[in-house]
Amino acid sequence: MTEEQLEAVDFALAAYREDGEWTVEELAHDVIEDVETLSHALRRFPGDGGAVGMVAVDEDFFVIVRVAGASTRILLSDITAADEWELASSAVDFLGLPPPEDEDDQVPAGDLDLLGDLGMHAMDMGVLLDDVDLYPDEMLSDVARRLGFGELFDDAVGLTSA
After folding, report:
1. How many domains does the chain have?
2. Is the pTM of this model over 0.85?
């Protein structure tokens, strides 16, 4: 990632649950340059169901990466971000999708149910992603709240709890 792209990262967090307790840690920006590097970094965290990485960029889009063992699952909130951002482009590549053709086609890409077993099912994720009035940090705060670590997430990114 270029220096400019690194500066545009709003936040990068890892969340994992051990013995029923959630932990949220900030990720170093050098591990978020692409999906492979991010996945590798997430594997170092312990966790009953793997680790979840949440990265928001430029108040524009987010990427959720979930690793568990050798499995990596991804959700990109807006496929058109792949035209401008290396992290989003690597997510599209990882998913084996063609690059977006229409920049007005702002749709998610990837696994809407990647957090289903933790409490955020595909239908709920789809409804959340359809809300064009929410910023990525607000969407991810909602995801974190549904998974059970909303307060930890809000504290880590500087949001006030509702």
Report:
1. 1
2. yes
In a domain, 122, yes or no: yes
What is the per-residue pLDDT across 4-22, written as a single tens digit (0 to 9) for each? Answer: 777 888 999 999 999 889 9
Q: At 34, is the secondary structure helix, strand, or coil? A: coil
**pLDDT per position as a tens digit, 129-153:** 999 899 999 999 999 999 999 999 9
Secondary structure of residue 153 in the 3-state scheme: helix
Question: Cα-flanking dihedrals φ and ψ of residue 99, to 5°?
Answer: -60, 150
Considering the domain boundaries, does residue 20 fall inside one?
Answer: yes
44: alpha, beta or left? (left if phi > 0; alpha if psi -120 to 50): alpha
Which residue segment(s) compose the domain that 13 sits in?
3-152
Lookup: tokens for 105? 């086609």
Domain contains 49: yes
Q: Tell whether 161 is covered by a domain.
A: no
- Residue identified by tokens 């974190």 is 144
Token pair 């959630």: residue: 22
Helices 150-157 + 136-147 axis angle, to 10: 150
Does residue 47 contact residue 5 with C-beta atoms inside 8 Å? Answer: no
